[in-house]
Amino acid sequence: MEKTLWHPVALAEAVVHAPLAVQLLQQDLVLWRDQAGQVHAFVDRCPHRGARLSLGRVEADRLECPYHGWQFAADGHCEHVPAVPDFVPPPAHCVRSFAVQELYGLVWVQLEAADVAAPQFPAEGDDRLRKLNCGPYDVAASAPRIIENFLDMSHFGFVHEGWLGSRDATAMERYDVEDTPTGVRATNCKARQPQSNLHSTAAADVHYTYEVTDPYTALLYKLPEAGTSREGWHESIGLFICPLTPETSRVWFRLAVADFDTPDAQLQAFQHTIFTQDQPVLESQQPKCLPLDPRAELHSAADRLSSAYRRYLKARGISFGVCR
Ligand code: FES
Ligand code: CO
């Protein structure tokens, strides 16, 4: 089931002239960009003698294997065998290729053809918001554990003490959780944050909405802080995860912010600080798979969103990164 979903595999700007090796759902892939700027994704294994195609190079509109120089066109078909220049390879001489699209500054791949749309990031189309990516982060945790961490506010006072929370204000107000046609949503999530963003000079009450629309995607909408934001502007963070293996993931954050002045590096540094606070705890969690059986871990009323996310994964039949 996971193979029919679209997954992010690389920053679009990382796929330049040289082929790039990436991994998705334990499948090694090679990404390469042709002369027209189109990105392609193949199995990273030459069908001739099994060499890694990502060690090869792009020759005009073909990917050339590093070993004997066989050249593969965008659709994966082999079009040139240098040792036998007159040979016209039959259709079966091909490497498996996958559907690719570029979205949100990332390259997305679908391993099994299906009529499925890539995850939505509604803030993308809002010109009043500036968009930029943070990452990749390679994390020794399953994708669902990482999503759940992103949806969790009750760790703020501990993991992000002095930033997103403080130990003397850990009680969480009740928030609302609902199922949506595509996932789950939590509204009225409130927290008092000592340093809620790069420019904070004093603690602020923040109001969040969280949304899961895809098994390995989560969105955060930050409602304006009183007196600091302009009416109707909802800053947003998208968490996009590539499940590499059941226990390892590659993570990007897409920020959509009202701030057009601060340099990218500074905005990324704030996000980096927060995520590197999460990372050691995330990587310490056992088991690395996310247990969907409600009896496998203990819960409190603050965990209602996490429980809803687990039920959603179960209903969707997700198996990669969850406990069997
Ligand atoms: Fe790729 Fe021989 S192994 S051309
Ligand atoms: Co955190």
UniProtKB/TrEMBL annotation:
<dbReference type="Pfam" id="PF19112">
    <property type="entry name" value="VanA_C"/>
</dbReference>
<dbReference type="InterPro" id="IPR017941">
    <property type="entry name" value="Rieske_2Fe-2S"/>
</dbReference>
<feature type="domain" description="Rieske">
    <location>
        <begin position="6"/>
        <end position="109"/>
    </location>
</feature>
<dbReference type="Pfam" id="PF00355">
    <property type="entry name" value="Rieske"/>
</dbReference>
<dbReference type="GO" id="GO:0051213">
    <property type="term" value="F:dioxygenase activity"/>
</dbReference>
<keyword id="KW-0411">Iron-sulfur</keyword>
<protein>
    <submittedName>
        <fullName>Aromatic ring-hydroxylating dioxygenase subunit alpha</fullName>
    </submittedName>
</protein>
<dbReference type="InterPro" id="IPR044043">
    <property type="entry name" value="VanA_C_cat"/>
</dbReference>
<keyword id="KW-0560">Oxidoreductase</keyword>
<dbReference type="InterPro" id="IPR015881">
    <property type="entry name" value="ARHD_Rieske_2Fe_2S"/>
</dbReference>
<keyword id="KW-0001">2Fe-2S</keyword>
<dbReference type="InterPro" id="IPR036922">
    <property type="entry name" value="Rieske_2Fe-2S_sf"/>
</dbReference>
<dbReference type="InterPro" id="IPR050584">
    <property type="entry name" value="Cholesterol_7-desaturase"/>
</dbReference>
<keyword id="KW-0223">Dioxygenase</keyword>
<keyword id="KW-0408">Iron</keyword>
<keyword id="KW-0479">Metal-binding</keyword>
